[in-house]
Specification:
Blueprint: E1 4-9, H1 22-30, E2 36-48, H2 49-57, E3 64-71, E4 74-85, H3 87-99, H4 115-130, E5 139-143, H5 145-159, E6 163-167, H6 180-188, E7 191-194, H7 197-205, E8 212-214, E9 235-239, H8 248-261, E10 267-271, H9 283-291, E11 299-302, H10 310-315, E12 319-322, H11 331-338, E13 343-346, E14 360-363, H12 368-380, H13 387-398, H14 400-416
Parallel strand pairs: 1-2, 1-5, 2-4, 5-6, 6-7, 7-8, 9-10, 9-12, 10-11, 12-13, 13-14
Antiparallel strand pairs: 3-4
Helix pairs in contact: 4-5, 5-6, 8-12, 13-14
Length: about 425
């Protein structure tokens, strides 16, 4: 009988936003031959402590668990847990420790989580267990760690099963700090997974004491075909939401520089810049910038692309360009590589794990001229790539079989222990 994993994702696709966290769902689907999956999306409702206590006495603080669907074998639920909020108390405790007890917060920890919050989560999860509101599971998988490890740790304690956590996002999120309980939950996990060496660096830099296991990322090569057609006018493709992480300003500067130095024609496709609702911001501003730029006549803009259309999009292009400030191990770049496209990218994280001169080129975060020159060299035939070799290397590292073998070993190890 296959073991069952309880997946707690930070993001997960919905009918309204099918692109949100779709790679988490694809991980679960890829691992179905070896594991069953129960997916629980989570919302934490914070209430001022005084009102929370009153509602607790009236028994109005029970968790709400809703069955969403059984989609391709993935049993999906939505969980709402109510917890008390101690704004003034938290600040008092932090200052008391710092000033009176002369115990500043440990390096990497920015706030203390009140024990009543932890107990509220645990009691809610115990309610789920006592009332059999979730199917049996053998392991908890929380991702991303900074958002979901505390919940994963509580599920692990209440149900007495192992806990695996993983990190995909900037660690910590810009403008956010880690709580003591989040750090404790990550350090207590039976395994910590990282998708790139850059992500490992970020986590260890916050003084989180873990032994990271590099598992990389997943890209199902069966969904993509090798690019074979040579286009008369080469096309540069960027697939990215319009957020500051993706740094479209640098992309525009690089392409404008290419326009100034290139002696040959080229096209540009900007795709998916308004597909991930909530993550993509101010799409109309990006459209306006492109319209006013030197590359307006070269550029085709596609707001959103369905998963079914993505492979055709890659096959219509010649080079994948990425100008991000930060990435985990970007799925879009992997998809491009699976299609045989060379990747010209900033050193944004993850790409350094596999992109060498046979796969593309990597430049510093602000080097728009380097990106432009590499694109121009491609146009002139000064640098060439073997599309088949690019695809084969990407599959060997991040294809379905390679990824599932790495991550499954971790789960089997912790479950057996």
């Amino acid at each position: 009988m296959k073991p069952t994993i309880l997946m707690l994702p930070s993001w997960y696709p919905t009918k309204e936003n099918p692109h949100n966290g779709c790679f988490f769902r694809e991980q679960a689907l890829a691992m179905q031959e070896k594991f069953n999956f129960v997916v629980v999306t989570y919302k934490c409702k914070k209430e001022i402590a005084f009102f929370y206590v009153i509602k607790k006495l009236l028994k109005f603080t029970k968790p709400k668990i809703t069955f969403v669907q059984d989609d391709e074998g993935l049993k999906e639920y939505h969980l709402i847990i109510k917890v008390p909020q101690f704004i003034v108390w938290d600040l008092f405790i932090e200052r008391f420790n710092q000033v009176v007890k002369r115990q500043p917060l440990p390096q990497g920890i920015g706030k203390i989580e009140h024990q009543m919050v932890q107990k509220a989560r645990e009691k809610s999860i115990l309610y789920l267990k006592m009332n059999n509101l979730l199917p049996h599971f053998d392991c908890v998988y929380s991702l991303t760690a900074q958002d979901m490890a505390s919940l994963g740790n509580d599920f692990s304690k209440v149900y007495s099963v192992p806990h695996v956590t993983a990190e995909h996002a900037p660690f910590p999120w810009p403008g956010h700090v880690l709580s003591d309980y989040t750090v404790k939950s990550i350090e207590n996990a039976d395994a910590f997974l990282a998708i790139s060496n850059d992500k490992i660096r970020q986590v260890l830099l916050q003084n989180v004491k873990v032994k990271p296991i590099w598992v990389g990322n997943l890209c199902d090569e069966s969904q993509f075909k090798l690019t074979t057609e040579k286009h008369e006018i080469p096309t540069f493709l960027i697939v990215a939401a319009n957020s500051f992480y993706k740094n479209f300003d640098l992309f525009i500067k690089a392409m404008e520089e290419l326009k100034r130095i290139a002696l040959k024609d080229f096209n540009i496709i900007i795709a998916g810049y308004n597909s991930n609702k909530g993550y993509s911001q101010n799409a109309n501003e990006l459209e306006s910038k492109i319209q006013k730029s030197l590359i307006a006549e070269n550029t085709q803009m596609i707001e959103a692309v369905s998963r079914e259309e993505i492979p055709t999009l890659y096959n219509s292009c010649d080079v994948f360009v990425m100008t991000s400030i930060q990435e985990g191990l970007p799925v879009s770049a992997l998809e491009a590589s699976m299609s045989g496209l060379p990747v010209i990218s900033t050193r944004c994280g993850g790409v350094e794990d596999y992109v060498d001169d046979s796969m593309g080129r990597i430049f510093s975060i602000t080097d728009y001229k380097g990106i432009a020159n590499a694109c121009n060299q491609f146009l002139n035939g000064e640098i060439k790539f073997d599309n088949k070799a690019i695809r084969e290397k990407a599959i060997s590292l991040f294809g379905k079989e390679a990824f599932v073998e790495r991550i499954s070993k971790v789960f089997f190890d912790v479950i057996n222990i």
